[in-house]
Specification:
The complex is a heterodimer. Chain A contains 13 helices and twelve strands. Chain A is α+β, with helices and mostly antiparallel strands. In chain A, helix 8 crosses helix 10. The model of chain A has no long low-confidence stretch (mean pLDDT 95). By secondary structure, chain B is an alpha/beta fold. Chain B is globular. Chain B starts with a strand and ends with a helix. Classes of the chains: A alpha+beta, B alpha/beta. At the A-B interface, loops of A face helix 2, helix 6, helix 7 and helix 9 of B.
Chain lengths: 355, 253
C-alpha cells in the first residue's frame, strides 16, 4: 500500500514500538516556545506542531563535533578513519527541514564525496510531517516552495484531525508500517480529506515576498553594492546564530588534537561560520571579509545566488530560523523585501500563477 | 626527554583556578604524567629556586611588589601561561580602577593606609609578555588541558575570537534572552563551551570581549530587549574594566 492512515490514539504506541529496536528522534518542547530534536522513548513528549527546532536535524547528518580520524606519530602520515554513527529514525521532520536535508545531500555527494556524511545518512530513516498552517510570521516556505513535501522522506504524515494520512515512500517506510502493525489502508474518504487539506493550504500559504522565485539570483547579482548590506553590518553582532541554526549551512573547521602523550590524537571537525571573525582570516592576519556587512552579504548570497548557479536550487528553506534567532532582529523577509523594492522587482502575482 | 618543569604562582585572586586544576579529577594523572610540578603553593610545600620551563600564573597585578615579582618570574621561565580572568583580563579586580587609589586604600586599610602601596589593577599581559592565555572565572579545565598540550607540543593556542553564542547554539541551549534575562554571550569570547549557560546560568563575560565587538549593534540589541543600560554597564564592569587600560594606551599611540 502506498497510502495509509494512523489513528491519532495510536501515535504514542507507534513511537513506543519504533523505539524498541532503534533510537527514535523527535521534536520535544524545551519551554519558552523553543523546541529541539531529541531521543524519545514514547510519543508523550513529541511536539508535532512546533515552530522549527533550535537546531535543524542536520545535527544528525553532520554533528556539531565529529571525529574524522585518529593518528599515532609512529605510523607517520597514516590515519585511521573513524565514522561514529548509529541507526536512527527521525520523526516529525517538517517540509522545510526535508528541503534542508536534500540540499546537504547534494553538497556532500559532490566529489570528493564526504564519506562520513554519506555513511551517516544511509543509517537515518526519515518520517516527515506536513504543516497545515504557518508555524509563525518568520516562515517564508511558500517563497521557496518548501511548504509542501518534495520527497526526501521514507514516510510522510499529514494531520487529518483524528488521524494521520501517511505516504509510504520507500521500502524502509513500508517496513516500518508492517513492523509496527498499527496502520490501516487509506479509504477514498481519507483521500478526500487530504484533498481538502491541500486546498486549504493553498489559501493559507501565500508568497511571503512579492518576487518571482526564479528571478532571485538576478536580484542578488544586481544588489552586490546595495546599502542594504551596510545596514545589516551595522546591526549584526557576528554571533553566528543565523548560520548555526540554518538547515543548509554546512561550513566546518578541521583540527588535530593531540593527547597528552603527544604521540596519539584525533582529527575532528566542528561547525564553523562565515560570520565568525576568524573564518576568512589568513596568514598574516588579513581577512577577506573583515566587515560584518560583507559577511552578512555572503550569507545571503550563499542562500539565493551561488547555489542556484552550482546546484540549480535555492539554499533557503524558508524555515525562518535565522530571523527568529537573530540577536539584532535581522529579518530575512525584511531584507528580501528591501532588495525587491530597491531593484524594482516587485511582482504581486509572483508565486500564484504556478498553482 | 625529561618532563618540563612547571611552577604555579598566584597574585591578586581567589585561588579558585588553582583549585580547579587540583580538582581536575582523573585527567590530573595524565597531566602529572606529562609535566613535573616543582612549585604549587596550594597543593604542596616545596619551593623551587632555580629556573624552570613553564610558569602558570593566576591573579592580577595590583601592587608595586607584584610588578617586581611577575617580572622575576618572567625572567626565570621559558613559557608563561596566564590563567583565569584575574590574570588574563584583570577580571573582578579591575573594579578597583573605578575609584581613586587613595580612596580604595583608605577603605581597605583604614587611617594608616599610606603604609600600603598600591597601583591600578592590571592583567598579567598588561605588565609582562605572556605566551598563552587561558581565560575564564574559573578556567574551563578542558581548555586548560588543551593549552597545556599546545605548550608541550610547542604549538600556538588560538583563543576563539567569536561569541559564546556560537558554542551555546551548538549545545542547543534555549537562548536566555528568550527567558527575558540579559547575557553577555553575544560579545564575549568563546572557548568555555558555554559552560555557564549549559548549567542554567548566564554569561558574565569572564573571558573578555571579542576583539572586534559591534558596540553600536550591541546597544541596539540592549534597547530592543528593553534592558536598562546601567545594568549592562555594571555587568561589563564586573570582569572587563581593565580593558580601558588597553584602550587608553591605544589612544596614546
Amino acid at each position: 500500500m502506498q497510502y495509509a492512515v494512523l489513528k491519532k490514539e495510536y501515535l504514542n504506541e507507534f513511537i513506543t514500538r519504533l523505539a524498541q529496536d532503534q533510537k527514535v528522534i523527535a521534536p520535544v518542547a524545551k519551554g519558552y516556545n523553543q523546541f529541539a530534536f531529541e531521543e524519545v522513548k514514547s510519543g508523550e513528549k513529541v511536539a508535532l506542531d512546533h515552530i522549527p527546532t533550535i537546531l535543524p536535524p542536520k545535527k544528525y547528518f553532520m554533528p556539531q563535533y565529529e571525529t574524522l580520524a585518529t593518528y599515532h606519530a609512529n605510523s607517520s602520515q597514516k590515519m585511521n578513519p573513524v565514522v561514529e554513527c548509529e541507526d536512527l529514525i527521525l520523526f516529525g521532520v517538517h517540509t522545510c527541514d526535508l528541503a534542508g536535508i536534500q540540499c546537504l545531500n547534494m553538497v556532500f555527494s559532490e566529489r570528493p564525496k564526504d564519506i562520513n556524511y554519506l555513511i551517516r545518512k544511509s543509517k537515518i530513516t526519515i518520517i516527515g510531517y506536513g504543516c497545515n498552517d504557518y508555524c509563525d510570521e518568520y516562515a517564508s516556505c511558500r517563497l521557496v516552495h518548501s511548504h509542501t513535501p518534495n520527497g526526501g522522506y521514507d514516510l510522510f504524515f499529514i494531520n487529518l484531525g483524528d488521524k494521520f494520512f501517511v505516504h509510504i515512500n520507500t521500502l524502509a517506510g513500508d517496513e516500518i508500517t508492517e513492523k509496527t502493525n498499527l496502520f490501516e489502508p487509506a479509504t477514498p474518504a481519507d483521500l478526500n480529506a487530504l484533498a481538502k487539506i491541500r486546498e486549504k493550504k493553498r489559501e493559507i500559504f501565500a508568497n511571503e515576498v512579492p518576487v518571482v522565485h526564479e528571478r532571485m539570483p538576478e536580484m542578488f547579482s544586481k544588489s552586490y553594492d546595495s546599502n542594504v548590506w551596510e545596514d545589516l553590518g551595522k546591526r549584526c553582532l557576528a554571533c553566528g546564530n543565523c548560520t548555526n541554526v540554518c538547515p543548509t549551512c554546512y561550513c566546518f573547521d578541521v583540527t588535530d588534537e593531540p593527547n597528552l602523550d603527544l604521540q596519539t590524537g584525533k582529527r575532528f571537525r566542528r561547525w564553523d561560520s562565515c560570520q565568525n571573525e576568524a573564518f576568512a582570516k589568513v596568514a598574516g592576519g588579513e581577512s577577506f571579509r573583515k566587515e560584518r556587512s560583507a559577511r552578512q552579504r555572503h550569507r545571503y548570497f550563499r542562500k539565493f545566488k551561488y547555489p542556484m548557479e552550482k546546484f540549480s536550487r535555492l539554499f533557503c528553506t524558508g524555515c525562518g530560523r535565522c530571523s527568529r534567532t537573530c540577536m539584532a532582529k535581522i529579518n530575512l523577509k525584511e531584507t528580501l523585501n528591501q532588495l525587491v523594492e530597491e531593484q524594482g522587482m516587485k511582482n504581486l502575482k509572483a508565486g500564484r500563477e504556478t498553482e | 626527554m625529561s618532563k618540563p618543569k612547571v611552577a604555579f604562582f598566584d597574585f591578586a585572586c581567589c585561588e579558585g583556578c588553582q583549585l580547579q586544576v587540583a580538582n581536575m579529577g582523573e585527567s590530573l594523572l595524565d597531566v602529572l604524567g606529562a609535566i613535573d610540578v616543582v612549585e604549587f603553593r596550594e597543593v604542596m610545600s616545596e619551593k623551587w629556586d632555580q629556573d624552570f620551563d613553564v610558569a602558570i600564573v593566576e591573579g592580577s597585578i595590583t601592587t608595586p611588589h607584584a610588578i617586581e615579582k611577575i617580572k622575576k618570574i618572567r625572567e626565570r621561565c621559558k613559557v608563561l601561561i596566564a590563567y583565569g580572568s584575574c590574570a588574563t583580563i584583570g577580571g573582578v579586580n579591575g573594579m578597583k580602577n573605578n575609584f581613586p587609589l587613595d580612596k580604595i586604600r583608605e577603605e581597605v586599610y583604614g587611617k594608616d593606609y599610606k603604609y600600603f602601596e598600591t597601583v591600578e589593577t592590571r592583567a598579567v599581559p598588561q605588565v609582562v609578555k605572556v605566551d598563552y592565555l587561558v581565560h575564564g572565572c574559573p578556567v574551563y579545565i578542558p581548555e586548560f588541558v588543551n593549552v597545556l598540550k599546545a605548550v608541550l607540543a610547542g604549538l600556538p593556542y588560538q583563543v576563539p575570537d567569536h561569541a559564546v553564542c556560537v558554542e551555546c547554539k551548538l549545545n542547543e541551549n534555549v537562548c536566555v534572552y528568550e527567558k527575558g534575562v540579559t547575557c553577555l554571550g553575544p560579545v564575549t569570547k568563546a572557548g568555555c563551551n558555554s559552560w555557564c549557560i549549559n548549567n542554567g546560568n548566564i554569561c558574565y563575560g569572564c573571558r573578555g570581549m571579542v576583539t572586534n565587538p559591534n558596540e553600536n549593534g550591541a546597544k541596539d540589541v540592549i534597547e530592543k530587549y528593553n534592558v536598562p543600560m546601567n545594568l549592562v554597564r555594571n555587568k561589563m564592569n564586573m570582569y572587563n574594566q581593565c580593558r580601558e587600560i588597553d584602550q587608553s594606551e591605544q589612544k596614546k599611540r
